[in-house]
Structure formats: structure tokens, C-alpha cells
Design brief:
This protein has about 500 residues and is mainly alpha-helical. The chain is built from 23 helices and 2 strands. A two-stranded antiparallel sheet has the order 1-2. The radius of gyration is 22 Å and the shape is globular.
């Protein structure tokens, strides 16, 4: 398998597969769904050798590919993964078949276009995680907006057009400063767009600060960090279930990944100088957004705000500059992909039956959907950071790293876990338990085999990662150590 261009396969197989599904069209409706699922599964299978064949002892880029793309402007088709990016390619390719399954019966119009959009988006996001040329990264980074914009705008709720435009404008405008920074770095590096060359550039602190702020605008919107988070609840509420799952499980990781690939290695001195700002913004997200989640009446909005709060732990872990913090943040990103994706799927199961996301419209669901409630309670507990679930591992590591950095920062991060338990359990109590609220709840049917399989697979991932996170931390350890050594050494 080592001779195969595995990263190119991970990128282009879903994209070409998506175009094939699109060409098949709704006139062959019976063929579209199984074809999309087969292509999504194939897209996942080609990423498995990346993990199986990964050398955990080195921080060097692996499975590299290099070809000229636009020689006149020194733009290359340069791909490679390290212990950080390989996990996100696996996560992205793993989530795609589950999203296809989740929309199997729910999507009845424009089925081919819906499935194609997810396949194409999966390939584009694999491109983001494997690109080592700045222009290639930027093209994939911006192109991934288009399928999600279409998914929200075509298959979303009543305010889908507003939500889609808000999502697109926020994320696109945020990226413009990053483009300016990339062009500046191109001229500073003797006309190279190679990211690895940029990591070694001796950039003065004053210039690093401008670069860091340019990257911050682009990546903070994607995370999203407070105060540029307002697009996310609208996008989640209006997006179809599959769109919410991919948005939470994968797209929010793009901004955090950008900090690790651009901000920290290219502007290490500025990263240390401005760490106080990043820590402050992260703690505001963890605390303030936690309180905002507590008062939500819409289940999707509550989970959207909880995602912002959990991603605050991620950026906090990055900027305390120790191994526990960074590895904990990465584990939290993977876990959040499983847990938040599962939570949105749970809301989707209820919405498909009652066409309401309002917490007040439910009550006593456990009496009619006991299997479903078992899953919902489990994922809510994981979202609260229950030990033995994946939600606990990352947050605990970040808190330990924070205490090493500063006791009070760790203390603030730790006590806010109470907020997570409060809003998750409060939602579950009102939706699932008590007396049957109305005749609509009384008529609910429990989850079918397809829904059970999707939620069951995610439950196994959450439990497996919570009980045995070593397969994840082993892969990332060498790359994280190398990054921290790079940030620790002054470059100016």
C-alpha cells in the first residue's frame, strides 16, 4: 500500500465519487443512496492505511506527495501528514458514511445533490488536513465553504438563506487577511509557498504579531471563538441534520487546526506574546457561552453553544504550551467530533418524527422511545465530561495542563465543567423524563435499525476512546513535542 498515493486517494476519491453521484441524478433514485454509501465507505477505507502504516516515532511528514501545480508562481501540489493531521483525515472520512446513512430516508428531494455535496466536502476537507503548500491549503479551505453553503441553503429550515449567507460571509471575510499574510510570507521566503519552509523563517517579533493577528481573524471565525461565534447557532439551527453533524464534527476543527499549522509554528514568538489574549478569549467562551447554553429553549441551539464552549477548551489547551494541554486539546477535538455529531443526530431523530426542536414540546420520551433515550443520555453524559467517555479524557488533560501553567486558569476551566453537566442534564430531563407531555410524544416510534446502527457506532467510539485513548495520543505525541520545542525557542 505504501506505493499508492494514499492522500490523493483520500482527497479525490470522494470528490470524483460525489460528481459521479451527481451525474447519476434523482432519475435513478434507488441507485443513488447505495452508490453514495459505497463511495463514502471506500473513502474511509483508503484512509485506514494512513493510520496502520504511520510511524509514531517521528514528527516528520509522512505519505508525502509532490508535483508541480502552477510552476510559474512556485505553487506545488504538496501533500503530507503528521501525527496531528492524520487523525482528522480519519475522523472526517469516518463521519461521512454515517452522515449518508443518517439522511437515507429523511432526504426525499434532490437526493443525489445532497449526497454529492457531502462526498465532495469530505474530499475537500481531507485536502485541508494534508496540504503542505499554502495556496493549495487556501484553495481547499475556501472551496469547502461551497458544499456546506449549498447544504444549508437548499435543505435547511425556514431561515436557511439568511443562515447560509451569514455562514458564508463570516468565514469568507475572515479568510481575506490570511490571504494577505500568505502573500507576504511568499515574498519573505524567496518565493516559496511551502509551509515547512515558512516554519523556519527568522521573522521579527513585530511582523510575527501582525501575522498572528491575520491568522487569528481567519481561524477564530472557523473555531468559532468569542466574539465571532454568532454565525454558528444560526447555521446549526437551519442546517439539516447531516449538515449540523459535519459542521460540528469536522468544520469547527479547521480553525483549530489552522492555529497548529500556521499560527504557532510560523509566529511562535507572537504566539507566546499574545497567549494571554488567547487564554482570555478561551475562558470567556468556556464560561460565558456555557451560561448562554443553559438558557436555550431550542435543542440544536443548546448543542451549538455547547460546541463553542467545548472548543474553548481546545484553544485554551493550545496556548498553555505544554504537552498535556496540546494533546488534551487534540483529544478533545476528536472526542467532540464523535459526541457533538451524535448529539445532533439525536436531535435529528426527534425532529424527523415531530418536526420540532423546542424542548418544551417534549417530555416523557423515555416511555415511547427507550432505546433512543439510552443513547441520548449516554451522549449527554459524554458531552458533560463523564469519566470513561471520550468527553472526559480531553477536558481532564487540558485542565491538568492548565494547572501546570497557572493554578487559577486551571481552576476556572475545571469549575465550568459544572455548567456542562447543568445544561446537558437539564435538557435530557425535560425532553426524556417525567410524564408523557402530549399525544405527539405518546405516538412516537422508537429508533429503527438504521438509526440504531449509526448511534451505536458512535457510542462505541465514545466509550472506546474514553476507556483507552492511547491509540490516539501515541500517534500525536512526537508531532506535539516537536511543535512545542519549536515554539519554545526564540526566533528573533
Amino acid at each position: 500500500m505504501s506505493g499508492l498515493p494514499l492522500l490523493s486517494l483520500a482527497i479525490w476519491l470522494p470528490i470524483v465519487g460525489g460528481l459521479l453521484v451527481l451525474a447519476t441524478g434523482d432519475r435513478n433514485a434507488k441507485l443513488v443512496r447505495p452508490l453514495a454509501l459505497a463511495l463514502a465507505v471506500a473513502g474511509f477505507l483508503v484512509t485506514l492505511p494512513l493510520y496502520i502504516g504511520f510511524d509514531t516515532t517521528t514528527s516528520a511528514m509522512q505519505f508525502t506527495e509532490l508535483r508541480w501545480w502552477i510552476p510559474r508562481f512556485s505553487i506545488e501540489y504538496r501533500l503530507g501528514v503528521d501525527g496531528i493531521s492524520v487523525l482528522f483525515i480519519l475522523l472526517n472520512s469516518f463521519i461521512t458514511p454515517l452522515v449518508v446513512l443518517a439522511g437515507w430516508k429523511v432526504i426525499e428531494e434532490k437526493v443525489a445533490q445532497y449526497m454529492a455535496a457531502f462526498l465532495i466536502m469530505s474530499g475537500l476537507m481531507n485536502g485541508i488536513f494534508s496540504a503542505l503548500d499554502a495556496v493549495l491549503f487556501y484553495v481547499f479551505f475556501e472551496a469547502s465553504l461551497i458544499p456546506m453553503y449549498i447544504i444549508i441553503g437548499v435543505w435547511g429550515g425556514p431561515n436557511r438563506v439568511y443562515a447560509a449567507f451569514k455562514f458564508f460571509l463570516y468565514t469568507l471575510l475572515g479568510s481575506l487577511l490570511m490571504l494577505v499574510a500568505l502573500i507576504w510570507l511568499f515574498f519573505q521566503s524567496d518565493f516559496s509557498f511551502n509551509l515547512l519552509d515558512w516554519h523556519a523563517l527568522p521573522i521579527p517579533l513585530s511582523a510575527q504579531i501582525y501575522l498572528f493577528l491575520a491568522f487569528l481573524v481567519a481561524f477564530a471565525v472557523k473555531v468559532p471563538m468569542w466574539p465571532v461565534h454568532t454565525w454558528l447557532p444560526d447555521a446549526h439551527v437551519e442546517a439539516p441534520t447531516g449538515g449540523s453533524v459535519v459542521l460540528a464534527a469536522i468544520m469547527l476543527k479547521l480553525g483549530a487546526y489552522g492555529f497548529l499549522r500556521f499560527s504557532l509554528p510560523i509566529a511562535p514568538d507572537a504566539s507566546r506574546e499574545l497567549a494571554w489574549l488567547m487564554i482570555a478569549l478561551s475562558l470567556i467562551a468556556v464560561v460565558y457561552i456555557g451560561f448562554v447554553a443553559l438558557v436555550q429553549s431550542d435543542m440544536k441551539k443548546l448543542i451549538a453553544y455547547s460546541s463553542i464552549s467545548h472548543m474553548g477548551f481546545v484553544t485554551l489547551g493550545f496556548f498553555i504550551f505544554n504537552t498535556l494541554g496540546v494533546e488534551g486539546a487534540l483529544v478533545q477535538m476528536i472526542s467532540h467530533g464523535f459526541v457533538s455529531g451524535a448529539m445532533f443526530l439525536c436531535v435529528g431523530v426527534l425532529y424527523d418524527r415531530m418536526h420540532s426542536r423546542k424542548i418544551a414540546d417534549y417530555g416523557g420520551v423515555v416511555h415511547t422511545m427507550p432505546k433512543f433515550v439510552a443513547f441520548m443520555v449516554f451522549f449527554a453524559m459524554a458531552n458533560s465530561g463523564l469519566p470513561a467517555t471520550s468527553g472526559f479524557v480531553g477536558e481532564f488533560m487540558v485542565i491538568l495542563g492548565s494547572v501546570q501553567y497557572s493554578f487559577w486558569i486551571g481552576f476556572i476551566a475545571a469549575i465550568t465543567l459544572i455548567l456542562g453537566a447543568a445544561y446537558n442534564l437539564w435538557m435530557v430531563k425535560r425532553v426524556a423524563f417525567g410524564a408523557v407531555a402530549n399525544r405527539h410524544v405518546a405516538e412516537l416510534a422508537d429508533i429503527n435499525t438504521r438509526e440504531f446502527v449509526v448511534l451505536g457506532i458512535l457510542a462505541l467510539c465514545v466509550l472506546g476512546m474514553g476507556l483507552y485513548p492511547l491509540p490516539f495520543t501515541d500517534v500525536m505525541h512526537a508531532s506535539v513535542d516537536n511543535l512545542l520545542k519549536h515554539v519554545a525557542v526564540p526566533k528573533f
